[in-house]
Amino acid sequence: MSDIQKNAKDILNDPKKLKEFADLSRLTPEAAKALLERMMKEPEMSKAAEDFISSAERTDEFKAYTAGEEKGYVRGQEAGFAKGAVVGAMAVIGTMTVAGLTYLARR
Description:
The chain is mostly helical. 82% of the residues lie in helices and 0% in strands. The protein has helices at 3-12, 15-25, 29-40, 47-54, 60-106. It is elongated.
């Protein structure tokens, strides 16, 4: 479990921390909870796939290749989610700025 997932779990288990996270993120508590729950998810390999890969019939090269591929997939998933969260936050901030400027321009 990564540090992000540990922190998300810690916040989800404490209603006070969840409220603080929601307030700091300018989210409703429900949206903050959904975001943190999503951050805790990670790609998981099925038991059948693990049994196939770790089977004595598989070569060490195959096992090493598969382990590297799986680690790359997990890192890519984490990086993609983080990038999406940052871009989404920037879009919200940009929209709020334009809305604020429009409001001020009409006064």
